[in-house]
Amino acid sequence: MAIFGSIIKSLIDLKESLTPEGEANKDQEEVLRGLLKKGKNTVFGKYYKFEEILKSDDIRKSFAEQVPYFDYNRIDKEWWHKYHEGEENVTWPGKPPYFALSSGTTGKSSKRIPVTDDMLESIRKAGIKQVSALSNFDLPPDFFEKEIMMLGSSTDLQREGDHKEGEISGISASNIPFWFRGYYKPGEEISKIDEWDERVQKIAENAGNWDIGALSGIPSWMELMLKKVIEHNKLDNIHEIWPNLQVYASGGVAFEPYEKSFEKLWGKPVQVIDTYLASEGFLAIQNRPQTHAMKLIMDNGVYFEFVPFKPEYINQDGSITNDAPVIPLAEVNEKEEYVLLISTVSGAWRYIIGDTIKFTDKEKYEIRITGRTKFFLNVVGSQLSVNKMNDAVKDLEDRFDISIPEFVVAAKRGEDGEYYHFWYLGTEDDRNAEELAEALDDSLMQANKNYKVARSKALKGVKVNLVAPDMFHEWNAVNKKKGGQVKMEKVMNEEKFEEWEVFVKENSGNN
């Protein structure tokens, strides 16, 4: 009998039953008040008069009126760059011991996002909440004795003056508690390997030595790792080497586009649990089965605000207009899309994280990530969000019984001078591109009235090209890097799309 696992499961069940469900609006006001109190003596806090905000009758309203929106470029240019010039107490007390590097989805140059000790503690607490939430899933006691494969970026962080730099997954993994290290795989030595292909090769070689019960990582890279383990060990599926694998904690992007691909890798059902760990903080967890929605963490050092995701409020670079309205938590509506703003214990203030979300259950404060502000295709009035694109691609998968884990799209003029949406679908299945284009166009028209209107006017149609899914991974390798937090952009402007098409043409013979 799995005695140790039974004890752990009992403790988790007990903690979950004794932990009271907080009142979200009250929790959020307390978080904001705590952030303002701690930040009031920083250069940022003095400039934006945090003391006055704290004395106001409505600190949420006063905060929104006093402090402007910041995207990364603005807050780095005006504030965060000062850390690298030796200043302290800039947007948070002291100096950050870490900076999270994030190339995001738009370029090779990295953002450098401060990660404070308070943020590391916030991430640790969120991780405990996620583990505690496992009591809501039907998992046997022996699951809690198995090892966890955390596929993130390298934990070999780079020393830069008085701080270290790396991706958030590497920073988090390098700070895991000592008691957890025995469960954590691939272990310290392999995790420090910076080169993705070399690290995955080592994982494949050592896979038979581990009893993996859970996986954690971004789907695109997790899929590649699992394929490598299967190929290297000459398996039919991953459960032949990890028979006790029961949970996959996905993160970073919606899992649905990868669902069919992963089904080919499993030997038996795996519980997929969504998480929302961004470079700026651990924002939400899935705390119950039978859903892909995640519950916002309201009491853990992150204050949330919501801006309606509408074309008139979105600038071309993905930032939001100064006059965009902010919706308080109490007034959000289900099914509507919002641009997510966060203020955090790392000194991000009214920060546009770049993600768009919608509430699937307002009472439970559960959300889905629907896309990125920069992945909004509206060149000819089509108003397509990534959420709508994902739904249309899922419809294609179901209709044609194929797997399309990756895609990219751009709006540009065709040879006839008319505007088309040009799609590249990543699939290993052989299908007629024209049939897929027609079905994709039909699905989008049925699901999106703005797209249907655009199709009757400036948008001439859809053109589809099929490429191997590996093409997207190699594009990332050339333009950013492989693995870690790197995500493939779904929408490109004409200039970037031209580079993509040249890349595909030059590398098609290799796939």
UniProtKB/TrEMBL annotation:
A Pfam family in this protein? Answer: GH3_M
Report the domain of life of the source organism.
Answer: Bacteria
InterPro entries per record: GH3 (IPR004993), GH3_C (IPR055378), GH3_M (IPR055377)
Domain GH3 C-terminal: residue ranges: 390-495
The GH3 middle domain covers 296-362
* PANTHER family the UniProt entry points to: GH3 DOMAIN-CONTAINING PROTEIN
Name-wise, this protein is GH3 auxin-responsive promoter family protein
Q: What organism does this protein naturally occur in?
A: Gramella jeungdoensis
